[in-house]
Design brief:
The chain is an alpha/beta fold and 361 residues long. The strands form four sheets. A seven-stranded mixed β-sheet has the order 2-10-9-8-5-3-4, sandwiched between helices. A three-stranded antiparallel β-sheet has the order 11-12-14, covered by helices on one side. The relative contact order is 0.18. The mean pLDDT is 97. The structure holds pyridoxal-5'-phosphate. Pyridoxal-5'-phosphate binds next to α3.
């Protein structure tokens, strides 16, 4: 297939050699070999460090959407109330997923170029609607924004909301995710963003309260979380685990922890800043509104006036750069640079900016 020397798509990102090597091994049966269980346990421990949590972390075969669906289905019964806080495509989308599994959903929606700042409105909605679950997206990838979560955790605790569901697929390992401090009960992650893996694994950090709810709801399905409550203890997984995928997740997490979490976060913040200031110097306009928080993992940029997305994409590719388009109301109007994981690299970013300069000339 055609590959590009300057990959800047916001997931799947370029996979580093150390991660690729995990696939080139002929493993035995993960159902039989305790070596697999040991790998699973060690990978879980590393994910706990990355997610600043003491909660158990499930490691499931499937792309990030599996975690999004599985956590909703495992915790909700028809009629359960969900307060869905939305600032973008994924935020509104998760509300739709919850509705489709029969929940009564109240959406507290903001603009696609905003991040949550009106905590009084959030508190009022929680107090009035009394949800069983609050959902929010940490990094809204299509908008290039990052929602602050500390205040939300405090509101959740104040009103004794049972479950806080947070999609951190595009932020974890690229920005601090303080799962326990922020009171997150279901922290959802996927493999193809800052963990620098192919789209094949998903993970959920599950709080003790969430395990109680999961036990009570008793949902059965491929994406169910319940079997993971006993899988390690009994060495009995609900389906044959994907040894290669787990090994790649281990390798991806190890790269991050070997570099050091603080250094990894600082690298993401620095490359994001390089990206934003570089683009603005070139006359590009960033998508997030003034006052909104930009994501350290992805930058969304307005397509310059009069430029057609398909044409822009074709010209960028001709110069070796591949970027992402966007979705929903931003489709055709916004392009995105993914500087997460392996792509949070100042040299790569400098090359991307050089091409973006030429596209303006
Ligand atoms: C990537 C991503 C997911 C996973 O969805 P896909 O688009 O199918 O990869 C979920 N949530 C967010 C915020 C994401 O960026």
């Amino acid at each position: 297939m055609e590959t590009y020397p300057i990959p800047m798509v916001p997931g799947p990102v370029r996979v580093p050699e150390a991660v690729l090597q995990a696939y080139a091994v002929d493993y035995g049966s993960p159902d039989l070999e305790t070596e697999y269980l040991d790998l699973y346990n060690r990978t879980e421990q590393m994910l706990q460090t990355i997610l600043a949590t003491r909660n158990r972390v499930t490691i499931q075969t499937g792309e990030g959407m599996l975690a999004l669906w599985g956590a909703l289905k495992s915790c909700l019964r028809p009629g359960d109330r969900v307060l869905s806080i939305a600032t973008g495509v994924f935020g509104y989308g998760v509300g739709d997923l919850a509705r489709s599994v029969g929940a009564e959903v109240c959406t507290l929606g903001f603009g696609y170029d905003q991040t949550v700042s009106d905590w009084a409105a959030v508190e009022k909605a929680v107090a009035e609607f009394k949800p069983k679950m609050i959902t929010i997206i940490h990094c809204e990838t299509p908008s290039g924004t990052l929602n602050p979560l500390a205040e939300l955790g405090a509101i959740k605790r104040k009103y004794n909301v049972p479950l806080l569901y947070v999609d951190a697929v595009a932020s974890l390992a690229g920005a601090p995710v303080l799962t326990d401090d922020w009171g997150i009960d279901l922290l959802l992650g996927g493999s193809q963003k800052a963990l620098s893996m192919p789209p094949c694994m998903s993970l959920v950090a599950v709080s003790p309260k969430a395990w109680e709810v999961i036990e009570d709801v008793n949902y059965a399905g491929y994406d169910a979380l319940k079997p993971f409550s006993t899988a390690q203890r009994d060495f009995y997984f609900p389906y044959t685990p994907y040894w290669h995928g787990t090994a790649a997740l281990y390798a991806g997490a190890k790269l991050i922890l070997d570099e050091g979490l603080e250094k990894v976060f600082a690298r993401h913040a620095a490359v994001a800043e390089q990206c934003r200031s570089g683009l603005q110097e070139l006359g590009y306009e960033l998508f997030p509104a003034a006052g909104a928080i930009s994501a350290p993992t992805v930058t969304a940029v307005k397509l310059p006036g009069g430029m057609d997305w398909a044409d822009f994409d074709r010209r960028a590719r001709a110069k070796g750069l591949v970027v992402g388009g966007s979705y929903g109301p931003m489709a055709g109007k916004v392009f995105r640079l993914g500087h997460m994981g392996s792509q949070a690299d100042p040299e790569l970013m400098a090359r991307a900016l050089e091409v973006l300069k030429q596209l303006r000339d």
